[in-house]
Amino acid sequence: MASKLQKRIVGTLVLVSIGVIVLPDVLDGKKEHYQESYESIPLRDDFDSEVSQAPIKAPQVVEVDAPDTKVKERQTNELDNEPAPKPASSDTASSSASAQEGAWMIRLGTFRNQDNARRLVKQLREKGYQAHILPKAIQPGDLAKVVVGPHVSKSALESQLTDLQSLTGLKGQLRKFDPLTQ
């Protein structure tokens, strides 16, 4: 026979297990199930087949002439009673030809010590040269390139080479300027 203590323990366990299983359902009240509404995405769009079969018109070509600026200049000069400007000389023609070739720069040197590169750039700028350090965002430990330029005239930079060598003691190299690699 089971003792009274054993009967009480078994009874308590049965009541607790029923409470754990049944009470949460009773206390929750009426349960509502939420179901998200959704629509499936069609694999193909429904479209009008007549629109897709319509022929495409060829683009129209329109020719536009550039305005004659020389005529306008003559008219304004006649109104001001000034003589008409002279046609472009060979100097401007050569500068426009060199502009088509691209820009040039002089690389004076590559420095591991960035302070020396900054001092040289400061000295060159005080003398009127367009000096820079490349790359612009230089990190500690990187090499600093000191360049003069860029300039569209190669001959103008060639004439500066001797002046730069006497000023800095560095023999510069004339190089083509490419802004994408600088």
From TrEMBL:
GO terms for biological process: cytokinetic process. GO terms for molecular function: peptidoglycan binding. PROSITE patterns: SPOR (PS51724). Residues 98-177 form the SPOR domain. This is Cell division protein DedD. GO terms for cellular component: cell division site; cell septum. PANTHER family: CELL DIVISION PROTEIN DEDD, CELL DIVISION PROTEIN DEDD-RELATED. Residues 87-99 have a biased composition (Low complexity). The keyword Hydrolase does not apply. Pfam families: SPOR.
